[in-house]
Amino acid sequence: MVVVRDRLLGLSKMWRVRSARVFLWVYEDSWLRNFARFLLLFLGVVFWASATVLTFGGCFVILLCKNYHYLFQESFFPLPGWLAVVAALVLLPTGILAISVSARNSRYHQGTLMHLLLVLLCLQVSLAILTQFYSIWMAVELKSTMGQAFNQYNGTHSLAHGSGTVDMLQKKLQCCGLQNYTDWLKGPAASWHSLSEKSRVPRSCCKTYVDCRGDLNQMDQLFQEGCLRKLQDQLHYGMKFLFSCCVMLSVLELLAGASNGILMTHQPFYDFRFLESSVFS
């Protein structure tokens, strides 16, 4: 009787321990699922907002390349901008699916969401690599074409493809010269006015055309910063902005994929359980 009682006590204690473990596992499992749902809901809203930000960055790069297309010999420089717009369009349904999955566990929505996240991750990685590569390539291209334009300036037109290229560039960017205003006083760029004239800069360097003839005695009326640095800074800002968005979104997409994976483990594909039946044994 003593042995039986000891065994019963042992079984009772083992059952209590196992019950406590099961309860703790269920509690932790429920907490993890709730956290995954909340995180997906939050990330869905973030994806919508990120789509707007990414569209802004992509349009900025596209318009920048379009406005200064005469300085780029290659026609595919706006590619990072268009890729950013495509990624933004994919972000919209991804955000909707993330919110939908957080509210209701649908295995079809979960599978579609996982595929979209994978597509987005590939797009973001490709875009991040392109922005770094294009930042260097476009800076070299600008230095070459802008140098040629400033050297060929003759007071009325520069570059054979159109008149007033340099003047238009200096007005848009509010700059003077390639590196700074002194570029107009030395080298090939200084030949745009006759040697008998007093050294001056083009009137497009003037902040305002009222009583300004480009005379160096009126430095307060002239832009002094170089055009090359200004345009390169704008391009660098656009590419850096897109790169930062890509890095941040890649991390968020990995978090969304992990959260979706947690919910998928509790919503198995029951339709495929017939494979375990005796038909295939």
Automatic annotation (TrEMBL):
The keyword Ribonucleoprotein does not apply. Keywords: Membrane, Transmembrane, Transmembrane helix. One of its GO terms (cellular component) is plasma membrane. It is a multi-pass membrane protein. Pfam families: Tetraspanin. PANTHER family: TETRASPANIN. It comes from Bambusicola thoracicus (Chinese bamboo-partridge). This is Tetraspanin. The chain crosses the membrane at residues 38-64, 76-101, 113-137, 241-263. Signal peptide: none annotated.
